[in-house]
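Notes taken during the Thursday session

The instructor put the following on the board and asked us to keep it in front of us for the whole hour. The protein is Metalloregulator ArsR/SmtB family transcription factor. We were told not to look anything up and to reason only from what is written here. First, the residues (105 in total):
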Amino acid sequence: MSDAVYLALAHPVRRRVLQVLAGGPRTAGELAGEFAAELSRPAVAEHLAVLKKAGLVRDEPRGRHRHYRLTPEPLAEVADWLTPFERYWRRTLRDLAEFVEEEDV
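Then, after some discussion, the predicted structure tokens were revealed:
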């Protein structure tokens, strides 16, 4: 997997864009509206460009608008990469819970 995916996911605004797109496709204008209080349209466009370059979103021109949609495949690869760590933390938390229960007795 490309480091571009992890770099794209590192920014909280880009993660929020992905969360919005998980609800369905949006136009660039609709996405900019989601962030109007915090970001300019050009700033949102830059974040979309990073996400697109990383393969996390794709766009489709329809008339005068571009519709962006989530591309889930790179996220599945991230989930696969995280799986061993999830198992580690589950085991660690289970061991901690067992220890605490034994101490409470």
